Amino acid sequence: MSTIWPDISERRLRPELMDDPSLDASEHRRALAGLQRLNAVSGAVRAVWSGLRGAARRAGELTVLDVAAGSGDVAIGLARRARAEGVHVEMHAADLSPVALETAREAAACAGVSLTLHRMDVLRDPMPGEYDAVCCSLFMHHLSESDALGLLYRMRSAARRLVVVSDLERTRMAAVLAYLGSRLLTRSRVVRTDAMLSVAAAFTISEFAELAAEAGLAGVEVQRHFPARFVFVWKRPA
Fold first, then answer.
1. Contacts of 236 by beta carbon, 8 Å cutoff, 6+ apart
2. Helix ranges restricted to H, the chain
3. Of 8, 61, 146, 231, which has the maximum CB count within 10 A?
4. Which run of H or of E encompasses 236?
5. In the chain, where are the structural domains located?
């Protein structure tokens, strides 16, 4: 398979440069900055907020954990969206990378957002508590089916009300947009390489729906978001 133009006929999971623990810290920061631009243009915050908004507005407040939060741009964006709509969100973010967490800490301070950070392996370590909602943005495609299933179980167990998952949908359009976006919006070699690997590793909606059902997330709501994103929303039965 070419990393420049991936074969999307079936899911192909390969290691991404961003996941390499030996990645140079300065290059890691450049990649995080590039991903922030891609997330901003592609509406990553909007996609996750669409899943949280109804419950947040009904309750007036939510405690939210963003797992595998990277540089915290989605978590910070959610807190700002909630504040703009008059909803109090106590926002937590978890990631394994100390570089990502330090970047998130700095960004939250600059944005005037309160963000509680947790360094943890979201696939292995205990969740830091229970939350009204647990969300995950653009991480599932990094995982094997068994790890994705395990993370869904863990998110469901930690969520009192909602689980929200936003990720890439493996389509030809996703490949075209990933190629163009990663070249127009960043010069990071990590982002440019990983963007195409991510499309090849992404789930289709039907593939992810099967995992969600196996994890006990029955009755999920599925939304499509431009460009080439899906959002799964599971509500805990009353």
1. 159, 160, 161, 162
2. 25-42, 44-59, 73-84, 98-111, 145-158, 172-184, 189-201, 205-214
3. 231
4. none
5. 23-235
Q: How far apart are CA 77 and CA 40, in angstroms?
A: 9
Rounded to 5 degrees, φ, ψ at 128 are -75, 5
Token reading at 48: 């996750």
* CA dihedral (178, 29, 108, 101) positive or negative: positive
pTM of the model: 0.92
pLDDT, position 4: 59
- Looking at residue 91, its amino acid is M
Give pLDDT tens digits for 86-142.
999 999 999 999 999 999 999 999 999 999 999 999 999 999 999 999 999 999 999
Nearest residue to 94 (alpha-carbon basis) of 135, 37, 54, 34: 135
Nearest to 53 by CA among 90, 89, 99: 89
Q: What tokens appear for 69 in the block?
A: 């939060």
* pLDDT tens digits for range 15-53: 999 989 899 999 999 999 999 999 998 999 999 999 999
- Output the CA angle 111-114-115, nearest 5 degrees: 100
